[in-house]
Hints:
Elements: H1 3-25, H2 37-40, H3 43-46, H4 48-62, H5 64-74, H6 86-115, H7 124-146, H8 154-180, H9 187-194, H10 205-217, E1 222-223, E2 226-227, H11 236-241, H12 258-264, H13 283-294, H14 311-317, H15 336-342, E3 347-351, E4 359-363, H16 372-375, E5 384-388, H17 399-402, E6 410-412, E7 434-436, H18 444-450, E8 459-461, H19 469-478, E9 483-485, E10 502-503, E11 509-510, E12 514-515, E13 518-519, E14 526-530, E15 549-550, E16 554-561, E17 571-577, E18 584-587, H20 616-621, E19 623-625, E20 630-651, E21 662-668, E22 674-680, E23 692-713, E24 731-738
Parallel strand pairs: 4-5, 5-6, 6-7, 7-8, 8-9, 11-17
Antiparallel strand pairs: 1-2, 3-4, 10-13, 12-15, 14-16, 16-17, 18-20, 19-24, 20-23, 20-24, 21-22, 21-23
Amino acid sequence: xxxxxIGWAEQGLFxxxxxxxxxxxxxxxxVVPVWLQPVGRMHPLLLHFPIVILLLAMxxxxxxxxxxxxxxxxxxxxSDDSGxxxxxxxxxxxxxxxxxxxxxxxxxxxxxxFLSKEDGYTGDVLQWHKWSGIGIFYVATLVYWGRKKTWxxxxxxxxxxxxxxxxxxxxxxxxxxxxxxxxxxxxPLTSQAKSAPVPLDQAVVFTNVIRPIIEQKCLSCHxxxxxxxxxxxxxxxxxxxxxxxxxxxxxxxPDSSLLMQRIHLPLDQKKHMPPSGKTQLxxxxxxxxxxxxxxxxxxxxxxxxxxxxxxxxxxxxALFKASEPVDEYDFDAADDETIKKLxxxxxxxxxxxxxxxxxxxxxxxxxxxxxxxxxxLSPIQEQVVYLxxxxxxxxxxxxxxxxxxxxxxxxxxxxxxxxxRGLTELTSLEQLKTLSLSGTKVQYADLQKLIGQFRGLKTLSLxxxxxxxxxxxxxxxTNTKVQIIAGFDGATSEPIKLNPPQLKNNSTIFSQSLxxxxxxxxxxxxxxxxxxxxxxxxxxxxxxxxxxxxDQPTLVKAKAYKEGWxxxxxxxxxxxxxxxxxxxxxxxxxxxxxxxxxxxxxxFDGKLGTFNANSPAWAxxxxxxxxxxxxxxxxxxxxxxxxxxxxxxxxEEETGIFPPGTIEIWGGANRDHLKLISTLKxxxxxxxxxxxxxxxxxxxxxxxxxxxxxxxxxxxxxxxxHANKGKPALLLVDEVFFN
Length: 739
């Protein structure tokens, strides 16, 4: 490397040192623009190059003085064609190598600092990785400049080289933890130590079935040190909390759960989980997660506490050493490749126990079901002992296909479209012990005639059918060997709690008045309500009649009551008034990229957002502001008289969603003649404040205006008590009310 090039490189090294120092000192105030973010994301691409160069350079530096001393002592130093001796060539090569390594290390550090400003990079591991990377650059820089000084000795060279290598190892280890998850280096050893089989009677569904899937496929991106989407899988508490997009799952509803929705997205979509390039979930792992959520996502339940023929128990039992007797079967196991081909996103097939040839089959998804799905199972008909068609549009005619599963022991037809006339086809199933017909249209006459023909039947489920209590009692009386499960009868059983009342109105936003409509799924329920913020009771609170008219913004609280039941939890309904809708609206500044909704029109579409991340109302109804103010201009063709402007917002302090710091209302005849007519500083949440959806309202003396501008400023820095202290808060707004 010629002297001029070295001079430029050394000047560049000085510039890098100053720039990195600037980035470190003003880290809290620096916002990386979107166009510069790809530069930060090149950090993992480039970092391996300076690591290799610096490792080589520091090893050579540690032995430089010994090499020079050895050559001088032996008096064997010879000149090359350029007149340089071996020691000089060694030193010159090392100097250039070190300079190149430091320059690339500096560039890599800058990229890493840019990358760390993106969402999802927090925690102690990130800090250790960041400071060890910065340490590499500055220690190596000191070595480079110091090695030319007279005071620089072999001992100092060794200490500098050893320090730099130490920083390299630390930065590499913490970088691997950020990328691949905690304990990445020693995971093969620790996982082997943990791999001892758990007896089935000790296995916990979450701990021993679900958590291993999470640790292998989710934890590397969602941990306290790398909070992608502000979501962590590190603990039960963080799993229940969810992330930036809301709760992970709706207990009992896998199809509505964000966790399963993201898993089922096409691989090429950005939000598919795990991301493209990461190890994907197997069909069995997806089925286990889905069944766990369907079983209300319980964290402490043991596998053996699940019902004996539960689908999740069937699949989980195959993972553990059996500690309970397993049924013996006189048929051979099905071909593994055949089972693998028949497994898909809407059909799971698994052994009922480890080593057992018997299979459990579950079919899902109404829209994907066709009778041909049953015919496709003909290669394994002999091995199927459990079949679930729950909530599928199965017809009476389909039961002829089911009758071919001659070893079937448990059949779930609950909430299908059968009427009972096709049950004759099933009487040939001599091994059938459990039959579920709940929620179907089976008739008493059909059951009375056929139930005795099921020779091995032990349990029959008939709750939520058209059969009366008397008819079910008569069936039980004449078929004593069969246990008939009829479900809950509020008149004779212990009381249980009613569901809360539900809203029938499409929207609770009105311009003049609103007739509130509430409903309840159980007949004979009485709904009582209040409008003063107190909890309704069953005696003094007025009875709701679906004829109550509201003409002002109101918080309605309602409870359901019925004799023989416990009263429901309180349901709250916010009613919002909006007298005027502007003729044109526009935003002066861009929305947060993640929360675009429908732009400026979002605020007047009458669609309210929710907390529930699994609802389209979360993804489509919230407009977000973080780096920019909300600057909304509304214009009216004819002047209007306004005295209040309200913003409906979300407040969720744990995830950094705060009210605006200040709200300014400007009004006038047109955009060029606006004056400040009101300012409001909304109350800010304190630590552990409960999440809330509310309207913050600026009130002022009546003003006649044709143009109105709202400036709502997001909180610039989260408070010191917050986990993301110093970072800007997110402001979410879904509706604006002009009155």
